[in-house]
Amino acid sequence: MKRVLQILFFLFFISGNTFAQAAENAVPMADKLREDGKIWVVVAVIAIVFLGIAVNMLRIDSRVSKIEKELNIK
């Protein structure tokens, strides 16, 4: 448990630096996508991927629940 807390503490401080740098530097590719209106295509693709992952997880959960009921596992 102590080791896990040390790792989480370390990752917390590493992530602080990445957020601080992101505010200062603008990404030209993202600006170009926003200007052309193509950023919404990127957002839509990401949303579809996450929706697919969520649906797949729900299907797997229902299958596991069905198998647990058949085997009387609690």
UniProtKB/TrEMBL annotation:
The keyword Membrane applies. Keywords: Membrane, Signal, Transmembrane, Transmembrane helix. The chain crosses the membrane at residues 38-58. Residues 1-22 form the signal peptide. It comes from the Bacteria. This is CcmD family protein. It comes from Dyadobacter sediminis.
